[in-house]
Sequence to fold (809 residues):
Amino acid sequence: MAHAVIAADTLEEKLTQELGYDDHFHEHHHGDKFQSNFLTTYIFSTDHKIIARQFLITGIFWAFIGAAMSIVFRLQLGFPEADLAWLKPLLGKWIQVNDAGIGKLDPEFYYALVTMHGTILVFFVLTAGLSGTFANLLIPLQIGARDMASPLLNAMSYWFFFLAGVVMFLSLFLSTGPFSGGWTAYPPLSALGQASDGSKAGMTMWIVAMSLFVVSSLLGGINYITTILNLRTKGMTMWRMPLTIWAILITAILGVLSFPVLFSGLLLLVFDRSMGTSFYLSEIIVGGQILDRIGGSPVLYQHLFWFLGHPEVYIIILPAMGIVSEVLSVHARKPIFGYRAMVYSILAIGFLSFIVWAHHMFMSGVNPFISNFFVVFTLIIAVPSAIKVFNWISTVYGSNFRFNSASLFALGFVSMFISGGLTGIFLGNSAIDIQLHDTYFVVAHFHIVMGIAAFFGMFAGVYHWFPKMFSRFMNETLGKIHFWGTLIGAYLIFWPMHYTGMAGVPRRYYAIDNFDSFKHFVSLNQFITIAAIVVFFLQVLFIINFFYSVFSGRKLTVKNPWGSNTLEWTTPIKPGHGNWPGNIPTTQRWAYDYGKGGEEFIAQFVPLKEGEHDHGH
Amino acid sequence: MGAISSPEYSRSKIPPQKLALWVGIASIVMMFGAITSAYVVRRAAGNWFEFKLPDIFFLNTVVILLSSLTLHISYTAFKKGKEQLYKGLLVATFVLGILFVVLQYQGWVAMTVIGATFTINPSSSFVYVISGLHAAHVLGGIAALIVAMIYAFVLPYKPTERRRLRFELVVNYWHFVDVLWLYLIVFFMLQS
Fold:
């Protein structure tokens, strides 16, 4: 296709042709080579937009599985006397039916469900599903690149993730069950096959799946960093990048620096499991038998795990923060408040995330003096987090806010992040942690601050960029029902858990109704379970809305439906391979000129007027 | 790798492939940083079996340093058009690389001979795992050298910018595994 023959019938196309630059992309016929049939277009594609959709849909699949698991164990927790025999066709031998015909969830399998729920949601949904989707979709589109620096590595990143998912999924069907020692996989439970059924083949497959996952996130992360630093269009300086890109850049750096540490930890675990070494094992008796493993330290594993594990929670939340900043600014029709402060707080959070890991280990026998160090840095994270919250609220304050599914979920994110962040201040104190560790208080804290909040960020992103991904809109009415139901429902699930946690109800227990001190929580527990079931069906509603809209949603008829400044909305309604049919647009200003000089919005490719000051610089 | 960056316009002077390599190297550094930190933490906890590292590991340090030298001269020769020197030293590097892996294996055998077996104590387990992980990265380098040799011997000699960059990436990575081994051997010396 010759690049110069496109008619310049809009200001945007005129500017793109005049100011954009010609990279001779269309003389190479990439599209013919890479997208010649169904397989290369939709399955083994190297196009970043297809890979983004692959990550999203795989993430939706895993979110459904992980959420369904939580409903099964919530049924056990809320209604321990209930008959679960109706689940037998699905769960088979994991439902034990007694002589009276009452079906009970196998306690071993309860632990497996809790473990898999955590692993799936943390890694497969909120890491791969969230970062994978939006990094792939937004990096080339928002920085003005034809594709990723290496489309091949990018596709491999998805396929390693896919393989990891296959291995994890197969482990669900083992006769000894999937791994059941908690998503953190602490030894000795994870190191010794004798320890439990789930620690046998289930754990081996867990390690294989996680190693494949580490490879996937490294390939992805290297690509994201390289693309952002190297392939920005002319004029797209670092200080003109949208906050989504800043957040994804720091997320990728965190991943590249922390996942290898997890890999080291898992490598030592593999040798402990199968080669007889004692990195993590010392003086252990299993089933009355004394093992000859001497000299290891299980706390060593915890250090290695949480050196990944803590940056991991920011790997989850930073992309959501970036999406929320962008979505709020666009729908508030106001520039993001404190753009530079937002960037610096992302950098500060990224840096601090590496020096707080031991706050997960206050009760593991870590020296209390060292704990003080980690308490201080943990509490300091509240400062950049509070700056971000302040800036989001200031962005929305006094604005002519457009209430739609995307912007509502972005607001919901801010609400969740505040509620969950406040309880983090409790948990960051090592003294209060003596009472609160391993209780439902912790469960409530991290589900609100990184589970629900990250999901809200993801939903905001999906509703906002759905038109760019599928050239159609999602149904707004269903979207709003989804939002209000999920917001209220999520609080109804997790708010009561703070009270049970403060009273000392331990997490991960199969049943708590046998303890006299917790008997009065029985009805509260039932309430939580009912709320969880309702919220689960609201997410099914979202999935229905999503797939219905992919095929039959309202069609996108204009390029820039939200009146947004960023470059992704200058691509055609159905962008092909290479994203822009002609020249690549150049960037003339920062991404947040909303309501400036009497104009509703001024897109990034519009040149500065004479004497006009660019906020990004 | 099929990078589709614009040939006329690039953000920085570093090509994307090279930047990607360095980011990858950073993540390998984190992996070894983690595992050697684990070594330090575990050693401080006591019950540590002390043994002398076999001399063969020190000898092998010379081998890998030498391989870096030959590869570097080969790279310079490639740029200056000295085709025979470039090809000869590339093969020499490959042979030295193989020799390094073989000698590492001999080092592990020598360790078991003096009683520092794989499972006797974390002190020796760590040496096997760390040096083994390093050897795996050297094998990755050898794979890259094989690709470089295919380029050298199958394709006609042409010192284009594209091929120079490809070769430079191999050289960079090889120097990295060399420096990584230097770090590890100095680390083991300081710890014993």
Remarks:
- Chain A touches chain B through 53 residues (CB under 8 Å).
- Strands of chain A lie at 95-97, 103-105, 285-286, 289-290, 594-596, 599-601.
